[in-house]
Design a protein that fits this description.
alpha/beta, Rossmann fold, 8-stranded mixed sheet, 9 helices, about 35% helix
């Protein structure tokens, strides 16, 4: 039995819809995987970043996205070194533990994850969501040390974006000589920044990691943040690693329990 003109039009429109829904990279007939080089321009400056795409990526399903913010030692313009420490290293060691697309922005030298670099990180996330098929309800942010501070900074400004927030050995309120271009997480005129952050993130799952013997970032920063979140009834986990110094990120990112928890979180609408 032959199809009617109306059914032919419906099939054509349906095919067009499917093509429009497929991300650009797949529509061109190729899907790159692994650590991919990318660039973007913010305020007249070019920012390099990397996107990790799992080998099993397919646009037939929506994938979770993790934004990873590196520490002070990985700052620069090469667009590569930020994947060598923390989450990138954990993925290279056991990729199956993180079936997700991961965005690795890079902060310029002598900068922090505030202001323009912070906007560049969010722009890298947005471009990645346009390029690949992602799940808007499973977007996570995490970072270590300076990146832990950036995690608090961006989560405070975009609590509606993230399904979970994971600051590792980070700080909310800190004044150290080596910190240049410092901008507080809470820029409002308040004497209670930890409480302000807790109020903003009261409905967002947070898991904080910190080494008990951290000599670079005082553990009290994370203790105060965890206490403030607990006080407002927020869904917070706090893991303090006894005897561990500044490097608490390897234990966090190599934890199978943590990876499963992270990817199991969904945005609370």
């Amino acid at each position: 039995m032959s199809s009617t003109p109306h059914s032919g039009i419906a099939l054509f429109l349906g095919a067009c819809f499917l093509l429009c829904a497929i991300p650009h990279s797949f529509a061109q007939g190729r899907v790159e995987t692994g650590f991919l080089n990318r660039t973007l321009e913010i305020a007249g400056s070019m920012y390099r970043y990397q996107v990790y795409v799992p080998s099993g990526y397919t646009p037939t399903q929506a994938w979770p996205v993790i934004v990873f913010l590196h520490g002070a030692g990985e700052r620069g313009h090469d667009g590569l070194i930020q994947t060598q420490v923390g989450l990138g290293a954990a993925i290279r060691q056991n990729a199956s533990r993180y079936p997700a697309i991961v965005v690795f922005p890079q902060c310029p030298a002598d900068s922090l994850w505030v202001g323009t670099p912070a906007r560049a990180a969010m722009a890298a996330l947005e471009k990645t969501q346009q390029e690949f098929r992602t799940d808007a309800d499973r977007v996570y942010i995490t970072g270590l040390s300076m990146g832990g501070n950036g995690t608090w900074y961006l989560a405070y400004r975009h609590p509606e974006t993230f399904a979970a927030v994971v600051p590792i050995c980070g700080w909310i309120q800190r004044d150290n000589p080596w910190v240049r271009n410092f901008e507080p997480v809470v820029t409002d005129d308040t004497t209670a920044p930890f409480q302000a952050v807790a109020k903003k993130l009261a409905r967002v799952p947070v898991w904080i990691f910190h080494g008990e013997a951290d000599g670079a970032v005082p553990v009290d920063q994370s203790r105060q943040a965890a206490a403030a979140l607990t006080a407002v009834g927020a869904p917070v986990h706090y893991t303090e690693l006894p005897g561990t110094g500044h490097n608490s990120w390897d234990a966090a990112y190599n934890s199978e329990k943590f990876a499963a928890w992270l990817l199991g979180q969904r945005r609370n609408r």
